[in-house]
């Protein structure tokens, strides 16, 4: 029977990680997978996570099932972090999910169930958004979001795409730290987007996967909070993979915001029923750790300060790299004003393969680099190699 199937390609970024791990050259760098590496080249565990895991090991007295919506206290603590005071002004219902990917899949399934047929996704964009929404049966429409050679965000084109859309549509937005461009939306951009979406009846799905890695924990949620307050309904997909360094534990949540508690609860019941048919309930461990940190002032303070150190270190590496790459591509000076883990370089596939084979520099075939994968000590050499490609 399996012979009637066709072989499916592996995830290119995960495949790249596998290739990198087998590369024994001493100077090899992995700028592919979106994970934070420290100056030792390790993807670290947060101090607060280690402590919370120890506490959990001592205190946890059962491994019984949790409900399909997950841990409600975790969800409350998380919504305070993401939605802030503005989030409290909207009726909100959340469901804990296996990572941000799980949250996005539930969002897509429920949007489809509610009759939405098409999803607007900018270009370039994190590839998985396209796959997730297509898997849920939505038609994907791309619009130009960012121009790589000039490193500019195409705000007018974004607004044109929304003006041409309508109530059958969904728009996926990155709360910040845009993957792959690092392009920054200002608060006035967010207000105009919210206005455009509300006017046309488009349902926003806002993806927040890098809170704390852009301009700060509060700052990175400002646009999202603004938007949620301005549109009648929204879905907010949260990933804690990077923000708490809990990648493999699969921690995330999907929140529905609405005008009334009744509408939010209907959304939650649908999110839960989709989850039930997919995986029944989310894994508990990572969310329990994140909840412990969010509810304990001392752990929260330590986690916040470690995250802030990471953010500042990435920003420094980003500006060092930008100034070196701008020698060949002046437009890349703009990289230092971009935010988060990623930027996208104006390289073709042959140059990217050359970087990998001859210099041990692993990056996605679209030219995306994960700046947080670079050690400060490697910036000069890597920049010199890239400039010479
Ligand atoms: C923009 C964006 N959204 C969501 C995710 C989902 O992450 P996870 O499913 O690991 O929580 C990622 C991961 O790379 C991402 O880059």
Identify the strand order in the major beta sheet: 2-10-9-8-7-3-4
Query: What radius of gyration results from the CA coordinates?
Result: 21 Å
- Bound small-molecule species: pyridoxal-5'-phosphate
| Total domain units | 2
Query: What gross morphology would you assign?
Result: globular
CATH superfamily of the largest domain: Type I PLP-dependent aspartate aminotransferase-like (Major domain)
CATH architecture of the largest domain, by name, is 3-Layer(aba) Sandwich
Tally of DSSP helical segments: 13
**What proportion strand?**
5-15%
Mean pLDDT: 96
Strand and helix order: HEHHEHEHEEEHEHEHEEHHHEHEEH
Q: Uncertain regions: pLDDT < 50 for 5+ in a row?
A: none
Give a short account of the largest sheet.
7 strands, mixed
| Distance between the ends | 47 Å
CATH class (first level) name of the largest domain: Alpha Beta
Structural class: alpha/beta
CATH topology of the largest domain: Aspartate Aminotransferase, domain 2
Give a count of the beta strands, DSSP E runs of length 2 or more: 13
Helix content: 40-55%
